[in-house]
């Protein structure tokens, strides 16, 4: 199997976790504390993977500026989408003030939610493809971290979409499209970025890492810690330990 195909397969595997989470979030009423717990675990696993697998390796060749650029670019896009109804796209709608708007409440919010999900997922998948450039083997730590974090993301967001009155077709259409976009993003990360110099590859990796960190802080951590309790803190530490252990296999 060629490396381009492998990049697509791993991107689809990681992005497909969003569909798994969305299925659970749409079909089952999940207690808020459980949503907070799985979101805390996923956020911490992803933070650790970004630190150990992406920023640390990219720093030597590209420094920290690209990571800051990635964070700024993500934040700019996120602000634009938030004003169009995607502010609470990863929220379960547990609190009325944090509920996703319905299309009737804010026209165009459905499209903004879909674009927001795409904005969140593309950097994660791109770095999966880029990781294949390092010796022809995908970073299983990165794939595992993105997969683990995508399950609670899909779960929480789908629960919020359902509460906002969006139907099954919209919910699974969005997450199915994002899973497909994850595959394409991973392929482009390998095929396009691979043609550049190591310094540019490191820079692209750092930009993606900065975007991922900004996404975690803006869309995952608030849902995880709004109802902070001892269990969430322990789960967060567990997420760090799992990611740390994976990075040392």
Word description of this protein:
With 249 residues, the chain is mainly alpha-helical. 78% of the residues lie in helices and 0% in strands. The chain contains eight helices and no strands. The protein has helices at 3-27, 32-62, 65-86, 109-131, 140-163, 168-191, 198-225, 230-247. It is globular and about 50 Å long. The chain starts with a helix and ends with a helix. 55% of the residues are buried. The model has no long low-confidence stretch (mean pLDDT 83). The chain crosses the membrane at residues 6-27, 34-55, 61-81, 170-193, 199-218, 230-247. It comes from Streptomyces neyagawaensis. Keywords: Membrane, Transmembrane, Transmembrane helix. This is ZIP family zinc transporter.
What key attributes describe this structure?
single chain, 249 residues, mainly alpha, 8 helices, globular, ZIP family zinc transporter, membrane, transmembrane, transmembrane helix
The secondary-structure element order is HHHHHHHH
Low-confidence spans: pLDDT under 50, at least 5 residues?
none
Give the strand tally: 0
> What does the oligomeric state look like here?
single chain
Q: Given the C-alpha coordinates, what overall shape results?
A: globular
In percent terms, what proportion of residues is strand?
A: under 5%
Radius of gyration, Cα only, in angstroms?
Answer: 17 Å
Structural class from helices and strands? Answer: mainly alpha
Distance between the termini: 24 Å
- Output the number of helix runs: 8
Mean pLDDT: 83
Biggest sheet record? none
> What fraction, in percent, of the residue positions are helical?
over 70%
């Amino acid at each position: 199997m060629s490396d381009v195909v492998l990049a697509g397969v791993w991107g689809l595997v990681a992005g497909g976790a969003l569909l798994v989470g969305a299925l659970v979030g749409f079909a089952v009423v999940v207690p808020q504390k459980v949503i907070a717990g799985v979101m805390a675990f996923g956020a911490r696993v992803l933070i650790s993977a970004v630190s150990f697998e992406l920023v640390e390796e990219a720093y030597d060749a590209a420094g920290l500026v690209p990571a800051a650029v990635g964070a700024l670019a993500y934040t700019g896009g996120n602000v634009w989408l938030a004003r169009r109804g995607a502010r609470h796209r990863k929220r379960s709608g547990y609190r009325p003030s944090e509920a996703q708007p319905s299309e009737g409440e804010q026209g165009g919010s459905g499209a903004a939610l879909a674009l927001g999900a795409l904005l969140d997922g593309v950097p994660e998948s791109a770095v999966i493809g880029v990781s294949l450039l390092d010796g022809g083997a995908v970073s299983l730590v990165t794939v595992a971290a993105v997969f683990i974090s995508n399950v609670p993301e899909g779960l929480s967001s789908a629960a919020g979409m359902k509460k906002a009155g969006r139907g099954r077709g919209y919910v699974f259409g969005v997450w199915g499209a994002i899973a497909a976009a994850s595959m394409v993003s991973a392929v482009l990360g390998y095929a396009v970025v691979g043609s550049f110099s190591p310094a540019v590859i490191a820079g692209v990796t750092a930009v993606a890492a900065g975007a991922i960190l900004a996404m975690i802080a803006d869309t995952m951590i608030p849902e995880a810690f709004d109802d902070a309790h001892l269990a969430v803190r322990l789960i967060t530490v567990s997420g760090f330990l799992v990611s740390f252990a994976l990075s040392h296999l």
